[in-house]
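Fold this sequence, please.
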Amino acid sequence: MSSDWVTTRNAILDIFKKALASGWNTLSDNAKEQISELAAIAQDIDANKDEMDAQARKQLLDNQAEAIKNVLLAEKIIAETIIIKAINDAVDVILKNAPKLFL
């Protein structure tokens, strides 16, 4: 039975778009690439399923799922770092404008 891999890929993208909501625009370029790769790996497994055992098929999917997780977590860390820097910069501005505020 042949699968519709374009529909599958789009369904995966929709799942991530909903899960990430407002953060999707920030993450979309890297996430789309990794999600497309996940769908491509699934398609390759389907095409070559007779040549690999269940463990090998699962390992391929697990490896790509881990790659997606790493991309998303890296983006989260970058976003958190930017936010922390912005907060620190804001506090510095407050302290410069009101140096006796905390004395």
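The CA atoms of residues 45 and 51 lie 9 Å apart. The two ends are 74 Å apart (CA to CA).
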